[in-house]
Amino acid sequence: MSLTYVPYYLSRVIIVSVFCFSKIGFTLEALFWAIFIFSMMVFYLHSGWFSVDLSKPFFPLKRDQFALEIQRKALINAVYVSILFNLMLSLFPWVTTYFPFLDINILALAVITYFTSQIFHFLLPQFNLACNKNNLRKL
C-alpha cells in the first residue's frame, strides 16, 4: 500500500465516524454505515472517475464538468427521494405497521440514493458507448 493516500484515508475515517456515530449512536448499525460510506470514498479515489491532485493530501480528488453534473444530479435525486419518503410516512403512518421494513433511517436512504445514483450516472455513458460499438460491429 502506498503512503501517499494515508492523510486522505485518515481524514475520511474521522469524518465518516463522527458523522455516523453522532447521527445513529454507538451501535452496530452506525459501524456498518461508517464502513460502507468509507468504502465508497475509497472506491471513488481509485475508480479513475476523478483526477487525483497529490499536492492536496486531504482533498486530492478533482472533478471536471462531467463529474460536477453527475454530483448535482445525484444530490437532487437523494433529496427528492428523502423528501418523498418522509412525506409518505407522514401522510400514511400506518404503512410501517403493515410493512415494517419501511421503518428505516431517512439519512441512510439519502446516502444509499446518492451513491447509487452517482454510480448509475457514471456507468450509463460507458454502457451506452459499449452498446453503440457492438451495434456498429454488427453492421
Q: Would you give an account of this structure?
A:
- By secondary structure, the protein is mainly α.
- The protein has two domains: 1-62, no CATH class; 63-139, no CATH class.
- It has five helices and two strands.
- It has helices at residues 6-24, 28-46, 65-91, 95-98, 106-138; strands spanning 51-52, 61-62.
- A two-stranded antiparallel ribbon has the order 1-2.
- A hairpin with an 8-residue loop joins strand 1 and strand 2.
- Helix 1 runs antiparallel to helix 2 (28-46).
- It is globular.
- The mean pLDDT is 80.
Brief summary:
The protein is mainly alpha-helical and 139 residues long. It contains five helices and two strands.
Roughly how many Å apart are the termini?
Answer: 46 Å
Task: Give the beta-strand count.
Answer: 2
- Report the major sheet: 2 strands, antiparallel
The helix content, as a percent range, equals over 70%
Would you spell out the secondary-structure blueprint of this structure?
Elements lengths: L5 H19 L3 H19 L4 E2 L8 E2 L2 H27 L3 H4 L7 H33 L1
Antiparallel strand pairs: 1-2
Helix pairs in contact: 1-2, 3-5
